[in-house]
Inverse folding.
């Protein structure tokens, strides 16, 4: 018999950026564990493909178009999610954009580029968590807040100061939420992926010079994949993590320890 606290039957998860990469892996694992899933994404084709994949698991699923950098869209889509599912038990703020490769040194970074990344990665997480926190507080029976950060938040990333700043800010937001929302039975945790094969990293990994420099530094001797994130998603969405809050889960094949 499966360990019952990991059974997500009757629970609803909202995952932003859930139509591909790590977000889709979160959604897929939660659906496999019996949970209902709503994903948000801006690409309609990816939304449709992700929805078809999730529907195969037999739980209630939906895909909605939402740009998390737009406050009004987040408010509207959170309302639409509640209208369709009735509640949100776990909210994964996973939507994000990377810095532009080859964008030049920090001294030449434009304010437009800086705000392009902050708009989605930090403002979007704020809008999403604010809506979810209001709902969970008003509902009164707990909840889960999960943010997808990055190793960039705790290590130096040349030419990626804007990306690193958003992920560091996200971790700080999570820690503050863990303290403030604990009295309502709501936990808040961050996941810090290492070098993971996704659409966002595809071009970088195809760069031979980069791969030759980085791969030898990964003790696991492979890039991470979406499958490496299903277990943590189920755990954090489940009753098993009810007393686990304010943590940062580093999933990087021990890259940060080498």
């Amino acid at each position: 018999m499966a360990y019952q606290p990991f059974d997500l039957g009757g629970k609803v998860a909202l995952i932003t950026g859930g139509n591909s990469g790590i977000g889709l892996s979160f959604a897929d694992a939660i659906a496999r564990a019996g949970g209902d899933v709503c994903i948000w994404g801006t690409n309609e084709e990816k939304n449709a493909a992700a929805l078809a994949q999730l529907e195969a698991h037999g739980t209630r699923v939906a895909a909605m178009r939402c740009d998390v950098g737009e406050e009004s869209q987040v408010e509207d889509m959170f309302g639409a999610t509640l209208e369709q599912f009735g509640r949100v038990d776990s909210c994964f703020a996973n939507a994000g954009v990377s810095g532009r490769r080859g964008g030049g040194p920090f001294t030449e970074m434009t304010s437009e580029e800086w705000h392009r990344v902050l708009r989605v990665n930090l403002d979007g997480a704020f809008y999403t968590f604010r809506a979810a926190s209001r709902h969970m507080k008003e509902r009164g029976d707990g909840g889960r807040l999960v943010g997808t950060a990055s190793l960039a938040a705790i290590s130096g990333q040349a030419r990626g100061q804007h990306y690193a700043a958003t992920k560091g800010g996200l971790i700080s937001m999570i820690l503050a939420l863990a303290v403030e929302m604990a009295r309502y039975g709501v936990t808040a945790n961050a996941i810090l992926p290492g070098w993971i094969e996704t659409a966002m990293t595809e071009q970088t990994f195809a760069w031979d010079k980069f791969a030759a420099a980085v791969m030898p530094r990964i003790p696991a001797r492979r890039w991470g994949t979406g499958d490496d994130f299903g277990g943590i998603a189920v755990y954090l969405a489940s009753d098993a993590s009810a007393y686990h809050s304010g943590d940062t889960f580093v999933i990087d094949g021990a890259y940060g320890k080498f």
